[in-house]
Amino acid sequence: MIPKKKKKKKKFKLGNLTQQSKRKETMAFDVLTFRKILRTHSSSHGIRVCFWKKKKKKRGGGEKAMPPGRVRIEGISSDLQRILDANMDEAPARRRAREAFKEIQARIDHCLMKVPADGLKMKESYDLNSKGIEIFSKSWVPDNSSLKGLICYCHGYGDTCTFFFEGIARKLALFGYGVFAMDYPGFGLSEGLHAYIPSFDGLVDDVIEHFSKVKGNLKDQNLRSFLFGQSMGGAVALKMHLKEPHAWDGAILLAPMCKIADDMVPPFVVKQFLIGIANLLPKAKLVPQKDLAELAFKDVQKRKLTPYNVIAYKDKPRLRTALEMLKTTEDIENRLEQVSLPLLILHGEADSVTDPSVSKALYEKASTSDKTIILYQDAYHSLLEGEPDEMIFRVFKDIISWLDEHSVKHTQ
């Protein structure tokens, strides 16, 4: 009897995905990580996956690359470096790091850190929200003068309401505004898995809940209230407005995340693969990403200071987080005509993190007649943190001028 030939299993080859995407400059595809996942999950689906092997290049005598999410700061003690190297997935480790580095942060050479706090009353709080999550918040209020208005700040993805924002908040408060900010669940000093957004709408609801309490506490002062959203915080602010169209008297949107720049989105094949495994591993840090500091900070000296923001998330985005942000930008892009509150939109023309062309579309399509857009030539993403001092002061002047105009209208 002639034995039957065994059928060979077909191999599904992903190959070199960066070449398939036909883009000259794209994000690295983390093959090793995907191999690990696929060994665990592909067998149950009867799929066999193989990758093209590349010959290892001989390494020179240069420095070893830091692992993703790890930061090294020159001149700090070994004890501080151990705190910095700790797993910051949960809030207690982030809080220890912030406390340990607070004095060092205050001494760095950046114009925002030199903004005085004299004449300001500042308060930090930890409060449980309706979901039982402990939320960190901070306020900056002029001590001996009546408020012109109320500003509620929504921070970006790689940021918190401390560090650089401390200087931004002090600057605004010195011009007579009460400034209130919070760290989203999972960000900064608030409880939750670091930079994990299971639902963007859920995050927006958390922010609405917190700032509704802030406004309620100051209700007797009859103040105009403004949203101030930066980068991803711009998307948060817009979603807040779309959920509650009449709750706010205006919004300042700084490089808003109405659409993620094409260069920041993974190649199509990688994107589809990530979507496919997001339900299996929503919290996995797998999404390829370029160096955000390099893309966002134009001023090289200021870029070198970003590691001092020790509680900011610096690892690869988590799968569910990345997909939620993409879904959110698609939703906002389709609803620009519904934006009806007074707007100040500020964007760097050379921004390669969020797309300035969609800020232009927001300006053109928003139904409000009270709207202003300012595009800064050659400026990058971080307009208030990463530009030369002259540009930072120019952006501040534009913000305060708009705020004063819209607060005066109310008092008249």
TrEMBL record:
Residues 147-388 form the Serine aminopeptidase S33 domain. It holds the Pfam family Hydrolase_4. InterPro entries: AB_hydrolase_1 (IPR000073), AB_hydrolase_fold (IPR029058), Hydrolase_4 (IPR022742), MAG_DAG_Lipase (IPR051044). This is Serine aminopeptidase S33 domain-containing protein. It comes from Stephania japonica.
